[in-house]
Amino acid sequence: MRLSRYFLPTLKEAPSDAQIVSHQLMLRAGMIKQEAAGIYAWLPLGLRVLNRIEQVVREEQEKAGAVELLMPTLQLADLWRESGRYDAYGPEMLRITDRHERELLYGPTNEEMVTDIFRSFVKSYKSLPLNLFHIQWKFRDERRPRFGVMRGREFLMKDAYSFDLDEASARTAYNRMFVAYLNTFARLGLKAVPMRADTGPIGGDLSHEFIVLAETGESEVFCDRKLVEMAAPGHDFDPATVQAVFDERTALYAATEEMHDAAQFEAQTAEADRLSARGIEVGHIFYFGTKYSEPMKARVAGPDGVDTNVHMGSYGVGVSRLLGAIIEASHDEAGIIWPDSVAPFDVVVINLRVSDPAVCEACEAAVAALEAAGKTVLYDDTDERPGGKFATADLIGIPWQLTIGPKGVAEGVVELKRRATGEKSTVALDQALEAIG
Ligand code: ATP
Ligand code: MG
Ligand code: MG
Ligand code: MG
């Protein structure tokens, strides 16, 4: 992608109403534009990162056995009357009336709709276990939308829903998602800690929030320090293995403010391991049994021929919120530092003299070689001065910067910089390609 033909409206300074660093950097890097309170347009650079995060989330869901579908954003109010949530949900729900006076709503979540899909088609225990997920825009009329995409009103969520014949297998489904979430957040370069959580309006008795520690987080959290450094569990989804992962992590204390028990924290955790901090909720999983299947009559015939209500769980990831969380966790004074797994481009090639045909030729050869090696490349072919180009490259956080100027062309070398460490080397193009991998 040639920067001269791209759309990257960077800003010198962040607007004063952007209070936290991730929001400031997303605006300065030309990733988003606010269209209304809590409602954003995704500009090309922001969209590339959003798509990559979405893809990591999708792949990890599929590895855990979940199956993707896509449900609409608009839902019938009558469906929500069946579960009793239409009146219970309150002012966070955006209610809409169509030309036939039919009541609709913009979905804040999808338990009712997915239960309706399930009951329409699944009649036997032989189809279970089943886990259906989608990645779709949600709307919640938040009282205080703020911090950019972190607390939007329109936001992108991955939500999965599991269906099982009984509580024991539903708990296995829960454990699979527990493991999938640990793998997902690790791939995104985040240290997310599962914490016992309140089940809120969705109800149920087993629930964990996945929290990324950050000073700007909206939740107050308490946990054993050892949980923060634990490695991702990997992709063995055998019931005994996922139970063991769940047991290992939940044996250590970790709770959000609503569930915090100071006495238990002290009894269970050595003083040196007690961490009280602030955190960002990036995921949330629930087991809620027959809360929806009972009123909505989602039943299957069991092995004995008797109909039973299915046991369900739901599993959310804040896909758009994750951009903010990743930036909060990974930036410096110069800008964003994207983890390789979600970077909008793998490499930025910086042309230091666009008026020099030999430099242009060398840059174009480098871009071609990188693309042939499967890398995504942003080619800075603008006539901006070098200082400005370096500042933009640092600001937008591309993991590798490859700089070519007249001196390098004369000597047959390029300059390679790793954004995360600032480490620079002057090497032949082949060596640079090898380092980038
Ligand atoms: P919060 O406590 O931040 O209001 P929630 O508990 O209401 O979130 P859930 O119903 O658990 O949210 O939704 C699943 C996930 O969707 C959350 O863990 C979070 O990552 C994301 N999410 C929820 N609300 C928003 C929002 N307003 N903007 C962006 N992401 C959100
Ligand atoms: Mg909320
Ligand atoms: Mg919450
Ligand atoms: Mg939640």
Explain what you see.
The protein is of the alpha+beta class and about 425 residues long. It folds into 2 domains: about 5-335, BirA Bifunctional Protein, domain 2 (2-Layer Sandwich); about 345-435, Rossmann fold, CATH 3.40.50.800. It has 13 helices and 23 strands. Strands 3, 7, 8, 9, 10, 11, 12, 13 and 16 form a 9-stranded mixed sheet that branches. It has a 5-stranded mixed sheet with strand order 20-19-21-22-23, sandwiched between helices. Strands 4-6-5 form a 3-stranded antiparallel sheet. One magnesium ion (MG) binds near residues 209, 281 and 284. Homodimer. It holds the Pfam family tRNA-synt_2b.
In short:
Homodimer. This protein has 437 residues and is α+β, with helices and mostly antiparallel strands.
The average pLDDT score comes to: 97
The radius of gyration computed from the alpha-carbon positions, rounded to a whole number of angstroms, is: 24 Å
The computed structural class is: alpha+beta
Name the poorly predicted regions: none
For the biggest sheet, the summary is: 9 strands, mixed
As for the CATH topology of the largest domain, it is BirA Bifunctional Protein, domain 2
